[in-house]
Design a protein that fits this description.
transmembrane helix, Cell division protein FtsL, mainly alpha, two-stranded antiparallel sheet, cell cycle, cell division, 4 strands
Length: 171
Amino acid sequence: MAQRAQKSGYRRTGKREYERTGRRSAYGAMTDGNTARQLDVVTELQKPRRPRELDHTVKKNRDRAIYMNFGYVLFLTLSLMVAGFILIGYIRLQSEITASVKRIASMESTLNSMKVANDEEYSRIESSVDLDEIRRIAITELGMVYPDEDQIVTVPDEGNDYVRQVADIDG
């Protein structure tokens, strides 16, 4: 502890009291207490100054600037242009996709409205047809009759929804 007090320019005099000791300052004059320093301006100006240490980021930026030759700048410019073209193409594709989604939504809306209109028209037609009246007119006015058992021909079902007649059916 005593050595530290001596290095700092203070001397321990009592339990917790310190007093300033005489010590040479950076200007070569002996300072004691609160006396003013005697500055020697001429010798201060004649001393060669040590160049300032450069900051790490300044050194790093200078090193980077050395490597920025024409080829590197050309490479960076071309890379930037390629990236720009790719981004423009990407944005164009995104806008086309958005337009397609809007067009599809519009077409689905039209399809749904057409289905609703078709179902309503089908229901209207179904409700306007009276099958009992059609049967009565067919039997009484047109002379139609139900077929006999020997007139009915059974066609084997092949799993399709319809049957095609390719030849006359003999009964």
